[in-house]
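User: Fold this; tokens only.

Assistant: Input:
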Amino acid sequence: MATCTFNQAKDLIRRLVSEKGFPDDESALTQKLLWAFVELGEAADAYKKGDSWGDVCEELIDAIFYILDFIGLVEKTQGLRIDVDQIFLDKWRRNMERPVRYGQRRAI
């Protein structure tokens, strides 16, 4: 697969979860969010240690895996269909309409 949308990636993650026997019921929702945070921490640690950009990005992709898994599990357990591509584009458009450096009061 050369490219994929967020929706396609979500479906691929749900297939992975099913085929590899990962937790896949409503009780796992909190766990999936927590693991996303863990992966973000691992990305920050890899960056701090000077690991390769590939390693840092792989940890970030792990976080995205858990986020998409969470959304897919919400779909499964709540009987919804969530269009992640549309949500992303809507959020991007809203952010593009905001002023320069919105929400940033202090120089970083």
